Every structure is written in structure tokens, then in C-alpha cells.
Amino acid sequence: MAQTLEVKVPDIGGYDDVPVIEVLVAVGDTVAKDQSLVTLESDKATMEVPASSAGVIKELKVKVGDTLSEGSVVAVIEAEGEGDATPADAKAAAPEKKEETPAKKSDAPGSNPPVARSHAAPAEPEAVKAAPSSRRQADVECRIVVLGSGPGGYTAAFRAADLGLDTVLIERYETLGGVCLNVGCIPSKALLHAAEVIDQAKHASDYGVDFGAPTIALDKLRGYKDKVVGQLTKGLTGMAKQRKVRVVTGEGLFVSPNEIEVTGRDGKTQLVRFEQCIIAAGSQALKLPGFPWDDPRVMDSTDALELAETPKKLLVVGGGIIGLEMATVYHALGSEVTVVELADQLMPGADKDLVKPLADRLKKQGVSAHLKTKVVEAKAAKSGIDVVFEGESIPDTKTFDRVLVAVGRTPNGGKIAADKAGVRVSERGFIAVDTQMRANVPHIFAIGDLVGQPMLAHKATHEGKLAAEVAAGEKKEWVARVIPSVAYTDPEIAWVGITETEAKAKGLKVGVGKFPWAASGRAIGIGRTEGFTKLIFDEATHRIVGAGIVGVHAGDLIAEAGLAIEMGAEVADIGHTIHPHPTLSESVAMAAEVFDGTITDLYIPKKK
Hints:
25% of the residues lie in helices and 27% in strands. The chain has 608 residues and is of the alpha/beta class.
């Protein structure tokens, strides 16, 4: 007998209000179980919501541009037999699953700012049957093992060692630091610095200093990047030795709840037996189907950082943070860059007004950005990668020397045989944890990218320290209210707390103080007046609940706003704090004064 089922957004790792960028089916379509119905895209990842049962689409509940969270209804399916979706007529009988928040505080922007929601308490689905002990002789035994040595992993290992725990750190790369230090955050920022210097040299001619056209030696630039990475990874190795943290190199897979087998590049294995474990296995670049990935001219973000060449024509698929950072680098090196993005704005997730100065500058520089556009076909040809587009803004160029696919990252939770330890992993590879970073298995913790959004190194660092402290017996929990985000583009874009878009969607009563850098003496002096500083305040209490900054060094400025939110600062606390002049930092105080109506560096007529 046919039954009507609701298809809901499954566990997507703590994502909230993620935009729908594509609806893949229509009413009346017959779909198979697990067939993708809609595509969602945040600033860090792209994901699809699958049909949880085969059947016919009777009703679509969403359209492009809507925002969804875990539990949102996507479609109604008339299905034969049982499915995993919720029967539409049983909606009232089924209690809605509620996310357990770390700090049990009100979400109203008044008395307390919102808590950063990156962790959901483990749900209560059927238990994962763990594998029995291997009963083999262990090569390494320890009190606690950390799987993965990225910023979260090495922080966890070092903190555990500092607390007196016998610690082992497992890392797949030959050097510590994980993706971030080796093929991610650090090398990309080294290259972005080079891009900034090139741009500054061009800009210097505006005030009478001409350096001439730059000569770029890719080998030397690549060497500089590698030197920066080497300096940091060498420092980590030294600190591991000082703390007596034992490092095991290779790919680690769980064998049982207390064993991990590590396979080195030479094929040799080591069995690590432990009492406690912190999983810090991170994420990897998402590889979209339909691209000729066996062709080296098709790159992910890791490949792009190798700087194999400076392509004459580069296509960047994905206008999020990673894609735009790499577009900034390659444009500075001399590539003709085209960016295509499925959403209706670059950097989905950020307020549109923050993104506009960047979009305008990219356009002025000749970077071609195309919104509401996707690649439907990419084929390798002798002359380059031939691409077919579909959407509202089709690029003129159809053949590119290289294509960078930068549409987000996917967690590695499903790649470490966690089920053998009894650890539950979602279909998307996320591991649910509680406010102490514990997975459903009490002696196993998880941190970083694979516990949910945002996928940011500085979030993982705090989680790693917390997990180590809880493992050592300290009574602590996750209480971070906000987590800042930064795009190291030119200009930089940074935001923290509630965005204007989010406040509007939730019906929150907030006010905005915005200070344009065109009125900043420091910004005028360096010729970078396109930016602004925006603070968002609760109208009732005048407490700061969010902030956004666009401009040079925005990433360095956003921390003050984050601290102000954590401390529950009111508008007068910020405006009355004396900031040095002339600096970009004083724009934070002036934005507070704009909201407060006390600004003297601008003339704003009083509202009648």
C-alpha cells in the first residue's frame, strides 16, 4: 500500500540555514531511494539531500534561494512500502529532534549572544556494533592517541601531554600539521601575501612610486611557500619531542574500540592500543563528478597550491572562500580568471554588502564572475579543458588551460573505519559529539571538521584543547558563543556572530552601526577606502550580537568584535574604549558611535 512520506534534511554536521542552490526534481517525477533531490551550498561545503525512499514526488516544499537546516521538510513522496522518511500524517505523533546547545542560554540577542552551534549531542539511533579486540601484540601502547595532527590534533596531543597523559599522535603526512599547515591554510596565506605585494607594487604608481612590471619566478615563489610550511612543521616536530609525544606516521584505521592499525607508505603496519582516543581526521576537498580528474589540468585546492604553472586562462568552479582566495593568487600571478558560482552571490553565507566591495574590485581587475551558473560538462582536449555551462550568466570563454574545482570540503569520518570502534558516523561522514566533544563511545572524542560546521582551524584548536582536558578528568564543556570567519581575499572579508541576513530571517530586532572607511584617515592614507566596519546590536539591550568587516586586514580586526560579543559588551563599552588614531581599528569604535548617534567623524542627520 502506498504511503505519503516527508523527506527531511538529514544530519548535515551542524549546518544551519544553508541556501538551496539547485532543485534537481519536479512534482510528478519518479525517484529512486537515495536519489538527490536538492543541492545545498554553504561557504565551506556543498551537499545534496537524498530521497529516503523510492516513489513519486507529490509536493516540493522548497525552491532555489530557500535556506534549510537539519529537519527541514524538502519534499513529500508517495512511496511503496516502508522508507526512512517520516509519514506526513504522523507528524504530530513524532516528537521533533532538538539540538542540545552547549550553554543552555537564550538565543534572543538581548541578554546573551547566541552560542556557537558546531556540536550536536549524539542522537539515539541503533547502536553500532563494535569489532572485538584483535588480541594481537600491540606495537605501541598509550593512555591516549590522537588521530590526525592538524591544528586541532596537535593542540589536543600537546595539551594531553602537558596534563601528564602518555600521548601518541598519528599523522598520514611525513610532517605534522595536517592539511592546514601542509596543503591548506598556511601555504595559501603565504601565496596570498605574495599576491598582496604584487598588487601593492602596482598601486604604488598612483602616488608616484613605480616599480615596473613584476617578474615572477615560480620556482622561487614555490620555494618560499615550502619554506614557510617547513618552518612551522619543524617547530611542531620539536614541540612534540619536548613533550615526549610519540609520533606514528601513516594511515590510521580503527580495528576495535581500543585499537588503531597504522599503515605506512612502505606498507608496513603498526598496531596502536589505547585507553582513550581523540579523532581529528579532518576533511578533504570535495570532488564533483563530471570532471576529468585523471587530467592534471583539473585541480582541487591542494593541487592549486603546488603552483605547477601560471595558466593563461583559469576557471574557478565555486565562488566561496577557497575559490576566491585561489582566484586572488592566480590573478596576481597573471592568469585570466573566470569564476562560476551556483548561488546568487559570491561567498554564500556572508552578508551581501560585505561581499560587494570584493566583487567590485574583482570586476575592476578583470576577474570575470558569473552567478547562478554551473558547469554541466567538462572534457579534456588537446587545447585545454572544454567546458559547457548552464545558467543565467554564461562565460564567453569555453576552453581553459586549467580548471580549479573549489566547492567545499567533505569530512573524513567515513574513511577511518570508525564503526569498528562502535562510533556512529552520519551518511555525510560527520561524527556527532556532546558538549565535551565525546562521541557515542565514552572514551572516544572527536573534534574539528568532522564534527560539523564551521570547518575552521581555529574552531578545531579550541575543541582539541577541550577534548584533551576532559580526557584528563577536568570538568569542562564547549561554551564558545561565536566563531569568526575570514576570507583572505583582497579586500579581506570577516564576520562573527549574527549576520544581518540571519537576523532578518529570524525576525530579530537589531540595529546596525556602519562606518565607511572612506572617512578613515588610515584607509585614505593607504589608498584603500572601499571597506567598512559594521556592528550589529540588539535594539532592546544595545548589546553587540554580530559584526562584519570588509577591507584590508579585516581578519585582524574581527577579533575585537568577537571578544566584545563574548563579554556581553554594550554599544557604549565599545564606543568609549579609546582606540589609537589613525588606525583601522578605530573604525570599530566609530561604528558603535554611528549606532549610538554620537559619531562626530561623520555627519548623519537625526531621524525626525
